[in-house]
Input
Amino acid sequence: MRSTKLIAGAGIVALALAGCSSGGSDPAATGGGENDGQPITLVLGHAGSTEDPRQWAAEQFGERIEEATDGQVTVEIHSDSTLGTWEEMIDGLQIDSVDIVIESMLSVEAYSDLASVETAPFLYEDDEQFFEVWEGDLGAEIKGAVTDASGYALLGNMYRGPRQLTTKEPVTQLSDVSGLTIRTPSAQTMLDSWNALGARAEALPFNEVYSALESGVLDGQENPLDAILFNSIHEVAPNIAETSHMFANYHFIMWDDALQGMPEDVREAIIEVADEVGQEYTANTVTNLEDYRTQLEEAGATFTEISDRDAWVEATQPVVDGLPDQVQTWVEQIRAM
Output
């Protein structure tokens, strides 16, 4: 189901992204679901730098899908938000100006509030609980429901690690957050959560975050360690509070109608390669998280523990209570694990 948001923004997105896609995901260009052997070029975008692990995932996906399809499918990779903000790229999936975007489920929350299950605060205690959900039946159920409701296919699970708060001044307790301007993605649940914690939440495009922190427009932002390290956020916000307020995966996100319009063997190859790259990305994240921390500390970042975590959980519980009934059911199942 197409969002009314697209109707308002389609013209802007089309202008920003026109000419980037070969139209490879158009069913008409692929024989309406039958493989006529015509070459297909998939345009893949992400908001990270070329040092960001998303670039590794994009390159691996491109190499492996070309091999899996004997060269029929090739991938054109665009990093650094060169196709637009992640919001514009997600919109662009619907109008065939982009074919794949590497982003988290939060990026489709504007199209289905079921996606707020990812952005609901303080659901997980550790990696093991997160993997139990997303590598099992519940994770598959959630992804299927979000796809059905939003129209976006969420392929592969690329674990990012927990999101942490990075600020210009140290944060060790909830009262330290009061009045700070904190950048979050534009997902409504994340904005609501940080406002509930006493901050002023600001949904600024990620490619503007470094300069906004440097100039003092922002007091802080929140992201997993990889995004902090490989986008140099620690240079302008060196205090990292270990809030672990949200755990998430990246996915290879496609417009589901476009995916289903692919020749069957190509569609199956895309899904299989996305899963394969996702498993390796997750293993790399688990292995590298301590190294990311070491690199950040060596570069001058300071990590601090939160002394009153229960207060943070209590402050954001009204946000969770306001989520859709189905999401609250999932939340109960996750917290019970």
Remarks:
- The mean pLDDT is 91.
- The chain is about 45% helix and 20% strand.
